[in-house]
Every structure is written in C-alpha cells, then in structure tokens.
Specification:
mainly alpha
Length: 238
C-alpha cells in the first residue's frame, strides 16, 4: 500500500486547486474561441471539426497536470505519492469497482427515467461537437480513447490523488473522505441531471482507492466505468 499520501498533504490542496483553477480558466478561453469559430458556420467552407472535438477535452488535462507537477516538484512523483501505475491487485479491485459503478449508473438511470420521463438530460458542448464531427472516425476514435484512458488518469490524480491525500493527512475518517471526494467528483462534471448517479459512481470508484491505498485501482475502475460513454462517442459518429 502506498503511504505517500500523508507525505504529500502539505501540497495536496494546492495541487487540487491549481488543477481545478487551470481547468476552469482554460474552459473559459476555449469557450470564447470555439463559440467564435462555430458562429457564422459556412456549409461551403466547414471548419476542421475533428481538432475542435479534441479541444473540448483539453481543459481536462489540466485537472491532472496540477497535482502531477506539484508531486514532481514538492513530493516524490505521482508513482510513489499516488500509486498511479496499476498493479495486478489494482486491476482486479478496479474492474470489480468499475462493474459496480456501471451497475449503479444503470439502476439510477432507470429510476430517474421513470421519475422524470427522460426529459432532464442537458446538452453539453461535447454533444454538439460529436454531432458535427459525423464521419470523422479518426478524431472520434481519439476522443473515445481520451474518455477511456485520459479522463480517468487526470480526474483521479485531482480528486482521489491530491485531494484524497490532503484530507487523509488531517485524519478525516476514510468514510467521510470517500463521501466528500465522491460529491466533488459528481459536481466536477457539471451535469445536474445525473448528479446522484455520478455520486454513486464516485463511491464505487473511490472504494477501489480506499481498499488499495492507490489511485492505480481507481483509474482502472474509472476507465471501466467510462467504457460505455467512450463507445457511445465513437459509434455516434459512425
């Protein structure tokens, strides 16, 4: 079990807020740039939509970059501080947790659909870009690959790496750390219509982190959880 999280606590909160702040700052910049790019769309001279699709994911990279940079600078590196590279136990626990996460998402999705009649889903910029990128399978494949591997890495470094380690250092009970990080994980996605589902998924993914003491396990769980949306992104443009 990795014990570096307590060592990393003096910079864990800083890494979390640097990553989160960079994410929101770049999101504002890209929103301004992309809105100007897509306004006045000329069907005769369409923009290169594949790169725009990947730009939608760029802010997510900064979520993990803040904790990673602080770990290299002030700590012992992400591998030792967080256990970022999965071992065989991480893979086993992570796949089990990812399966529970998918099951929870499905069950809550059925309940919410029955309650709201499927009318609560909000569109996101990614939905628009995915539709515009129809038939650009190479770009859609790259976007799906980022959902499957990139997003789990960056989000786990932020939430269950830097933030979890910082909270754990101050002797907050692990069950409370699990609940807090799962709640923040849900709100980070800014999709109010599925906050409850994301919270339940966060609990399942965080359980892998809690059991193993490593984010390698939660990365595997997160990747397993993202398999369905990654396939959906890819197949939606086919």
């Amino acid at each position: 079990m990795v014990t570096g999280s307590a060592q990393a606590a003096h910079w864990g909160f800083l890494g979390f807020f640097v990553g989160l702040g960079g994410y929101h700052l770049l999101t504002l910049v890209l929103t301004a740039v992309l809105s100007g790019r897509l306004s006045g769309f000329d069907a005769a001279e369409p923009p290169a939509l594949g790169p725009l699709l990947l730009l939608a994911f760029l802010p997510n990279v900064l979520l993990g970059l803040g904790p990673a940079v602080l770990s290299w600078w002030r700590g012992r590196g992400p591998r030792r501080d967080f256990g970022v590279l999965p071992n065989w136990r991480d893979i086993r626990v992570g796949l089990a947790s990812g399966g529970f996460s998918l099951l929870a998402a499905w069950a809550l999705g059925v309940v919410l659909f029955q309650v709201h009649g499927g009318s609560t889903r909000e569109s996101t910029p990614l939905d628009s870009l995915s539709a515009l990128a129809d038939e650009q399978t190479v770009w859609l494949a790259a976007a799906a690959l980022f959902l499957l591997l990139g997003a789990p890495l960056t989000e786990e470094l932020l939430v269950r790496g830097a933030l979890w380690g910082a909270l754990e250092h101050y002797r907050i009970p692990r069950s409370v750390v699990l609940a807090l990080t799962s709640l923040i994980f849900a709100f980070l996605h800014e999709e109010s219509w599925r906050t409850l589902s994301l919270f339940a998924q966060g609990i399942a993914i965080g359980w892998a982190r809690m059991v193993t003491g490593r984010i390698g396990a939660s990365i595997v769980a997160h990747a397993a959880n993202n398999l369905v949306p990654a396939l959906d992104v890819y197949l939606s443009g086919g």
